[in-house]
């Protein structure tokens, strides 16, 4: 079975399991878990920020970050395809009382002009525009990297209109490995960033929120409010420490496999995928080009032992990760070729 549905499917490495078993533990709600404290210090240093906070999931990381930056009645400007707008059960609105203001973008990137025109005038009738949310890499766009110059341009607009910037960097290490831009440089351009250990970095659980001390103090409070205050978290953060040492550089292998997959699919059907936009570990495939609707394709390739996910707009998503080898990619290509109509 080749499982390309998501990099969240990755299971911890033997080294992670060993570290988890022998982790020194304490009660993290008291701030006394030494392993978690060490992880938070190491992450803050790596990101070049004042503080970092371990949270159970990327969704909670985004929610506590945005609640820390915006109040009920405020508006968060984001890409219309943003994960926070499409895949987080409307938590911003339902839990935070915060409205999303989706704006169109191109391959995950927002035009500064579109950001500026989404900012509300300062008049009591309107919601207050307080935050700009960017996603890097951009999931629905197919794992595209937000170019650093575009982030700088967004920062300029944000400063002009007094907006804070939140970055949903669930896969920020994929972005960094692909672009060569250090994670600290991304962090230096935003007010807060969330990233996940539970995706390509292969940890079983956990995400981080990073930023200033003041911001993390707020996020810490919201984490507790949302039931995310956990006790002996060292059993989880021990795996994250191993991930920092062992799982970042190897993401380049996942990216190479994604390019191999996209290149191979293009040979099978010219317009089924766009290798030029395969920048990290995701490949979007237009199944009609292979003679199938998305659900038919998922079923047909599933019978061949390859799992993928039906996505938006007639596409399926295939994600490479540490449990997918180059041989698995070649097997997948062979099977796609065999079933193409
Ligand atoms: N994304 C999942 C699904 O929800 C689609 C996946 O398989 O890709 N931000 C981004 C950009 C994400 O891709 C995800 C997860 C999250 C946030 C939420 O992370 P979790 O699942 O830890 O809450």
How would you describe what is shown here?
The chain has 341 residues and is of the alpha/beta class. The protein folds into two domains: 10-246, Aspartate Aminotransferase, domain 2 (3-Layer(aba) Sandwich); 250-340, Aspartate Aminotransferase, domain 1, CATH 3.90.1150.10. The chain is 43% helix and 16% strand. The protein has 14 helices and twelve strands. It has helices at 14-21, 34-47, 58-69, 83-86, 91-94, 112-118, 148-161, 172-179, 183-188, 213-225, 234-246, 251-268, 294-303, 326-339, and strands at residues 2-3, 51-55, 74-79, 99-103, 128-135, 164-168, 192-196, 207-211, 282-286, 306-307, 309-310, 315-319. The strands form three sheets. A seven-stranded mixed sheet has the order 2-8-7-6-5-3-4, sandwiched between helices. A three-stranded antiparallel sheet has the order 9-12-11, with helices on one face. The chain has a two-stranded parallel sheet with strand order 1-10. It is globular. The protein starts with a strand and ends with a helix. The mean pLDDT is 97. The chain binds ligand TLP.
């Amino acid at each position: 079975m080749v499982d390309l549905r998501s990099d969240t499917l990755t299971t911890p490495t033997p080294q992670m399991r060993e570290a988890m078993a022998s982790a020194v533990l304490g009660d993290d709600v008291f701030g006394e878990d030494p392993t978690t404290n060490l992880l938070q210090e190491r992450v803050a240093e790596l990101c070049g920020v004042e503080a970092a906070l371990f949270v159970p999931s990327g969704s909670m990381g985004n929610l506590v970050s945005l609640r820390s930056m915006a109040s009920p009645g405020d508006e968060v400007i984001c890409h219309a395809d943003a994960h926070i707008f499409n895949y987080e059960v409307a938590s911003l609105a339902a839990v935070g009382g915060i409205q999303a203001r989706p704006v169109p973008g191109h391959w995950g990137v927002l035009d500064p002009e579109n950001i500026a025109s989404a900012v509300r005038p300062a008049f009591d009738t309107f919601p207050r525009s307080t935050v700009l949310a960017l996603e890097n890499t951009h999931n629905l766009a197919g794992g595209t990297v937000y170019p650093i110059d575009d982030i700088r341009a967004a920062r300029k607009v944000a400063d002009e209109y007094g907006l804070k910037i939140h970055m949903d960097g669930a896969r920020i290490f994929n972005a960094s490995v692909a672009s060569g831009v250090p994670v600290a440089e991304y962090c230096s351009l935003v007010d807060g960033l969330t990233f996940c250990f539970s995706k390509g970095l292969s940890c079983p659980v956990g995400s981080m929120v990073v930023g200033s001390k003041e911001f993390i103090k707020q996020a810490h409070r919201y984490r507790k409010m949302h039931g995310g205050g956990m006790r002996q978290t060292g059993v989880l953060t021990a795996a994250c420490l191993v991930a920092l040492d062992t799982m970042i550089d190897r993401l380049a292998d996942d990216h190479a496999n994604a390019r191999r997959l996209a290149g191979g699919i293009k040979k099978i059907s010219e317009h089924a995928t766009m290798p030029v936009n395969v920048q990290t570990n995701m490949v979007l495939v237009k199944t009609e080009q292979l003679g199938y609707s998305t659900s038919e394709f998922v079923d047909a390739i599933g019978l061949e032992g390859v799992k993928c996910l039906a996505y938006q707009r007639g596409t399926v998503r295939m994600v490479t990760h540490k449990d997918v080898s180059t041989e698995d990619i070649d097997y997948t290509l062979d099977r796609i070729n065999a079933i193409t109509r």
